[in-house]
Amino acid sequence: MRISKVVATELINKSKGKIFTATFLKKNGELRKMNCRLGVSKGVNGKGMSYNPTLKALKPVFDMRIKEWRTINLESIMELSINKEKYIVS
Predict the structure, then answer these.
(1) Is the pTM here over 0.90, yes or no?
(2) What is the DSSP-derived secondary structure letter of residue 53?
(3) Per-residue pLDDT of the chain in tens (90 residues, 90 and over written 9)
(4) What are the distances in angstroms from CA 50 to CA 46, 47, 53, 88?
(5) Residues 1, 6, 24, 42: is their CA dihedral positive or negative?
(6) Is residue 64 a contact partner of residue 37, using CB atoms and an 8 Å limit?
(7) Strand pairing partners for 30?
């Protein structure tokens, strides 16, 4: 099923901590496929980020494979698998 980037962002925001898979282009042009989730408190120190990721179209997520925080580039997201559904983002 095809969805827009806005709908993909909404689906991610409504994932309620469930694991999902996102495929997107990294800043350097490399393709990344990441199993991740929201709502993880590991590594959170209470200081916050030094920038606002929303202004850069980035979504902070917890990478389940490497157990570290990463960001998804919402402008270059290509595929999203969430709630047992696979979406093509255009």
Answers:
(1) no
(2) G
(3) 999 999 999 999 999 999 999 999 999 999 999 999 998 878 777 787 888 888 999 999 999 999 999 999 999 999 999 999 999 999
(4) 12, 9, 9, 32
(5) negative
(6) yes
(7) none
